[in-house]
């Protein structure tokens, strides 16, 4: 029904904790997109079906029962359905096996792709939900025996792939720590409006690369402010440099690496990497997400 | 007047950002004490004189014009008087030279002891205000050629002293990071009432000692919760272990070390140190503070 004439319309959804994004597609071609601050936290009483129907209403009027493929925190304990994590190594087949299949209240076939769990490079338990789709997409867009990729964000991921399968990954709470320090710590107190400042960002990167323990490292945002070395409007740039530098200090410079995300964020990481002698190839996060989810859609629809 | 008959009454004050503590003394003997949540942040329009007079009123009625010796953030830019930091190496003479002398509105001779600035063990600029008094007191209570001391707190300090002078020190934002993560991060979200739990604390210490990058390390409070390895009421204990473990991982086990503070806090650090094969000798923070401030009082009164 929904893939007659060889062309398929479908809806791709990235439903996270704070944001909701949807794409109306014809195969891989974007017809329309939606972005709303309607993450899981804004959904009351687990009314996920009704919320989604409301969000997608403009698209569903014309084309009812479009297939819906979802990834992200929507598959977590706090989401629509608790979909157990796939384990490492995780490739497309593994994710498809763990995919949750159901029908929406308005009759669309729907799938929620699982996240992935495994041990990080440091032997800690780790989890991701959503980034595994981008990683699959990356490996499809840029085929290679191995990939090492950085996915910066609230909880940045560093992942290694082999033959298109995720073999390990590590989370860094870079974005969340940055927000916490700016908004709630002594370091961010009594600041005027902030402006981006490359030299302060660079100083943060350089300072973080020296192996200084983190809980001491960040205090330099206080002492350099007291000493007049960083102007008040540039404290956030310096803190951003410290946080990204702390994350990038873990990267082995000998391996080629990808950075996956929005152009603003990947450019920032490339700028930081340049100071550290690392080479990061940037790829668009949405492109990877849609590529990865489209390939999974084909597989789950074959089964259905 | 105020040290007739060889005995001197005086007031010692530790005035910080959030708390105010005062001691009425006869030389080194405590006659009375006060503690109020009246840190600098609660003082409006720089009304420090009036605020102090109100806080000390019960003592001033009987004994007017008692000498007042102050330390802590009261000597900072945000305090009563911006008293420039003393530089390293910092001993009693150095602190006395930088002390700000004045008379309170009600006629008491008063002194504000400066803080100390210098480069940390990691080559970063660093500052302290208040801890220098405890360090002087420690060296007087327990004379030795060298001291290495930990002063745990919101901003923990690790200091080295030689011949009674502070030669370097390093700040770790242990207490503040703990509060931030518990109160404002994903890691502390949706937790029931917390209860102390030694095994979770110990697991945090052990996990932090493995050299894992901090922004990845703390994510284990999330993943171990998801995996059911740490019960919900014990997340704070685990985070406390991670934070203190991250701080103690920087300590060289070969040197004898002191830990200066309240009995609750020093006991916690000793417990953590025990797991790491470190030996910490605990000393009471108030005892050190009063000993150090009393010795400085003698010196500044001699000059006055």
TrEMBL record, chains A, B:
Pfam families: DGOK
Molecular-function annotations in GO: 2-dehydro-3-deoxygalactonokinase activity
Keyword Transferase applies: yes
Assigned keywords, A-Z: Kinase, Transferase
InterPro entries attached to this UniProt entry: DGOK, DGOK_C, DGOK_N
GO-annotated biological processes: D-galactonate catabolic process
Keyword Signal found: no
Protein name per UniProt: 2-keto-3-deoxygalactonate kinase
Classification lineage: Bacteria, Pseudomonadati, Pseudomonadota, Gammaproteobacteria, Enterobacterales
């Amino acid at each position: 029904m929904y893939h007659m004439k060889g062309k398929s319309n479908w809806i791709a959804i990235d439903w996270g904790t704070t944001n909701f994004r949807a794409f109306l597609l014809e195969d891989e071609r974007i017809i329309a997109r939606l972005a709303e601050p309607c993450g899981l936290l804004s959904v009351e009483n687990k009314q996920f079906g009704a919320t989604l129907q409301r969000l997608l209403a403009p698209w569903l009027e014309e084309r009812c029962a479009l297939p819906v493929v979802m990834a992200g925190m929507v598959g977590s304990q706090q989401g629509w359905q608790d979909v157990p994590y796939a384990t490492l190594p995780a490739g497309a087949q593994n994710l498809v096996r763990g995919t949750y299949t159901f029908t929406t209240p308005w009759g669309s076939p729907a799938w929620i792709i699982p996240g992935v769990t495994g041990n990080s490079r440091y032997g800690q338990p780790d989890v991701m939900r959503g980034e595994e789709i981008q990683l699959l997409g990356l490996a499809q867009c840029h085929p290679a025996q191995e990939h090492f990729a950085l996915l910066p964000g609230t909880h940045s991921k560093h992942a290694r792939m082999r033959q298109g399968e995720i073999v390990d990954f590590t989370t860094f709470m870079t974005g969340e720590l940055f927000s916490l320090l700016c908004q709630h710590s002594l370091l961010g107190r009594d600041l005027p409006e902030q402006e981006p400042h490359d030299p302060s960002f660079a100083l943060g990167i350089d300072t973080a690369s020296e192996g200084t323990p983190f809980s001491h490292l960040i205090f330099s945002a206080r002492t350099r402010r007291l000493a007049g070395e960083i102007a008040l409007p540039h404290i956030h740039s310096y803190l951003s440099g410290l946080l990204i530098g702390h994350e990038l200090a873990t990267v082995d410079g000998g391996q080629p690496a990808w950075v996956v995300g929005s152009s603003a964020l990947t450019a920032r990481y490339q700028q930081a990497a340049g100071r550290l002698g690392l080479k990061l190839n940037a790829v668009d996060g949405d492109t990877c997400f849609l590529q990865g989810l489209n390939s999974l859609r084909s597989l789950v629809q074959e089964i259905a």
